[in-house]
Design a protein that fits this description.
This protein has 19 helices and no strands. By secondary structure, the chain is mainly α.
């Protein structure tokens, strides 16, 4: 009974610091009750399965330890082991392929957890054989990710996404490959549950990394996506915000109460935008200039880094304000429709609409952005000249929406009436139907 000698199979009194055994088994999809063998001998398949369960359980312990200590070097957790050899990873892929063919979901889940640990210290391969093994493991993971819903359980799909996210820089070496993957999950995520879940896992991980490296790390640029990907993310956030506000009018009374009990919960896309915005603003407002930097292009003592941050803030603020205009326009339409409706719970929906709005980008992004723009470091003519038209439009929208909610009197009764008469002509961030 070799596998029973592990801390994993001893009770919690002798297993300090590790997750309880039944929680580990639940993640692996196996029973936490160890049956006693009816005969003196155990079949070879049963021994192999138990050993694989043991390996998966120990990998979960290591992942939990890394989760609680994100700055802990992986070598200190794994006993200063050398990077795994290609032949070992090839054997792992062999086990995965056989488990997939046999439909053994428990072994598949165990190997997926093993992949998550392996990818954390299996650095960029240097030989062609290593690259072939990496491509093979990536194809296996992608095959599971894109499997039809009726052929894969949600738990396996989640572990696949965690494995791909853990090995993102290994499976997709180079900025171009990662950007292509992110573009795929951002544009096709709504049509495929696997891609949608992978998008959420990757963006959540990037958001956490940005928060942990807020003040001027060398890896900041790696966690900050390019403008094209940010635009796709912002489109998703605008759509999510509009859908959330529309639910206040369209869902049933019971579903509306459930909605109020779940907000404000930010989606992964919104969380990433919040992390990027906070990262840029905090660096610009709080970080001290580098006295050693000598830049001829600096203006009024500003370093080149501060100028780059301001340029990034201006680009992000322009898109965020444009998206907020669209969400506010939807908020006006829903508010007016509720006021003119004969719903028995109209007043409750109007009151709940304010709470729901706080869960959108209007509540998570806009207040922080507007407050930070008042900081002296961001009070520049360039910033004011670029953002003033949008800020004026924003003031009109917010004032009229507040008037609607306060007086419950529709002020946009006429069709086509909009602030400044530019609602139909202005460039929209999210032009297609919501």
């Amino acid at each position: 009974m070799l596998w029973t000698c592990s801390n994993d199979y001893i009770d919690q009194w002798c297993n300090p610091g590790n997750q309880a055994f039944h929680y580990v088994c639940q993640r692996l999809g196996v029973s936490h009750i160890i049956p006693e063998p009816k005969e003196e001998a155990i079949s070879t398949n049963e021994v192999i399965n138990q050993l694989l369960h043991h390996v998966g359980a120990m990998c979960i312990h290591q992942l939990n330890l890394l989760a609680t200590n994100p700055n802990l070097p992986i070598t200190s957790v794994l006993g200063k082991q050398h990077p795994i050899e290609a032949r070992h990873l090839s054997s792992i892929c062999d086990i995965m392929e056989k488990a997939m063919v046999n439909g053994d979901t428990c072994i598949v889940r165990c190997i997926l957890v093993v992949f998550q640990v392996v990818f954390k210290f299996f650095f960029s391969p240097q030989t062609e054989r290593n690259r072939d093994i990496i491509r093979r493991s990536g194809l296996l993971l992608w095959q599971l990710l894109m499997a039809p819903k009726d052929q894969i359980c949600p738990e396996i799909q989640k572990e696949v996404c965690l494995a791909i996210s853990s090995g993102l820089n290994i499976l997709y070496p180079g900025e171009t490959e990662i950007n292509n993957l992110l573009k795929l999950v951002l544009t096709e995520g709504e049509r495929n549950s696997g891609l949608s879940q992978l998008r959420d896992v990757i963006l959540t991980n990037l958001a956490e990394q940005l928060q942990n490296n807020r003040f001027g790390s060398d890896e900041d640029d790696h966690y900050r996506l390019n403008d094209e990907l940010l635009h796709y993310i912002l489109k998703i956030v605008v759509r999510e915000s509009c859908i959330l506000i529309t639910k206040c009018q369209t869902v049933s009374k019971d579903d509306f109460q459930k909605l109020l009990s779940t907000v404000p919960a930010a989606s992964s896309c919104l969380r990433y935008l919040m992390a990027v915005q906070n990262h840029l603003l905090s660096n610009t407002v709080l970080i001290k200039p580098d006295d050693n930097e000598d830049s001829d292009s600096s203006l009024q003592g500003e370093t080149l880094k501060v100028q780059e941050l301001k340029t990034s803030i201006l680009a992000l603020a322009t898109q965020v304000l444009t998206g907020c205009d669209e969400v506010l326009e939807m908020l006006q339409q829903v508010t007016t429709a509720l006021i003119n409706s004969d719903m028995p719970d109209r007043e409750q929906r109007l009151k709940g609409l304010e709470q729901v709005t706080k869960a959108t980008m209007l509540g998570h992004l806009l207040p922080v952005l507007l407050t930070s723009l008042m900081h002296p470091n961001l009070q520049t003519l360039t910033m004011a000249d670029a953002l003033m038209p949008q800020l004026v439009q924003l003031v009109l929208y917010t004032s009229q929406t507040a008037l609607l909610l306060k007086t419950q009197c529709p002020v946009f009764a006429e069709v086509g009436c909009s602030p400044c008469g530019t609602s139909d002509q202005k460039c929209r961030l999210f032009p297609d139907e919501r």
